[in-house]
Amino acid sequence: MPIYLRPGGNDALGGTNDTSDALQTLAAALAKFDYTNPDKRQVVACADTVGGSASFGGPGNRFTNVNQSVFAMGTTEAERLTIQGRVGDAITFNPAGGFFWIIRDVCRYLDIFNLTLDGAGNNDRQLNIFAQAVYEMHHFRLRSLTFKNGYASNLYLGQHCHDWTIEDCTSFDAGRLDNQSNLYYTQGWNAVMRRNYGYYSTTPPSLSGGLRLFTNASVIDEVNALHPENNVIERNFMKNSRYNYMFDGENIAVKNNWSRLAWLYHFQYLETTGAVNDDVRVLNNSSEGQGASGAKGLFLTKGTATNTVNTNNIYYGMTTPIDYNGATPSEALTNLTTDPSFENAGNDNLRIQTGSAAKNAGTTKAEVTDDYDGNARPSGAGYDIGASEFQEAAMLGLSRDRLVNVGLIHAPKRYWFVGAAR
Length: 422
What we know:
single chain, mainly beta, 19-stranded parallel beta sheet, ten-stranded parallel beta sheet, 2 helices
């Protein structure tokens, strides 16, 4: 049975339901965890009995302490802790210390999902979720979360966090403090960032980012091989940032992503000085447009990385589609920089039409088995260039909705949720 908490709850109760027996604080719920009992490893945080929202930091609110810390001490998958909200739940807050949740120290095997975290009015540092420790922060999953209005980054995962999955999250309008991002992950390994949506609804702040996964130059530890490696960035959509995607490291796959209206770079390979930058593969991504004149599609910051792959990508509508900065990639095949005939780029639809020059024109890549929507590749005579594989079944004359209903293609996906609502 989950442990329930809500505004107006009572920490002296049992936490067995979200109405008459709900707790008030996360601290009280944590005190009831029993990692040997599957029924005592889940928290359901309910705003109230009918959904809606709750404020943070005052009497009667969901969590009563500022800078709420979360500790998960599981040592195996069987001891995973889950903290979740109900569909439509939301939290707004203005903590003096700048953080909503700090995931810290020795923290392992944790799920957080189905919540909206709104930092409206906060005027301090990082917020929403902040995680940073050395070596002992791992095996986390963040799913179906909405982050918004972060003064700095909406989500910050600091150095040496590893074995994370961040998926189906929406993050927008972070970085009122310059040089921050909607989704920010540094120095980690064995991570997957999948099906996330990030954007700025107005002019993005200076050096603001959509999704960043790169080496933190101030904490490089190559003696212990601590740098980004074995990470996957796939099937995300970033829009209207100064740079939509920033990455570096070793054995990094950036594939099947959409990118629109970057102001500086759609895809920036940062190549942090002093770190290992090797075997970064940019595959089957679709990028379109620019927020300001002079934007670039793919940009290598220093031109010193080794074994860089840039294949099957669409870079269209920006001043400089590709800038290797003097480097020679190990592979650069079938990239398209002319009009790819997107279905409706102005309405954030980067799928290709039947007459597209990208159709069946790509290079076969065993690593890329599906597309942005999860449809299998190839669909026709060959691999398509870009993130979206044209669905040959459409030639039957059926509508897209009908093709979805009969199971011939996957449903189109746009990943901007409110909490867990889809």
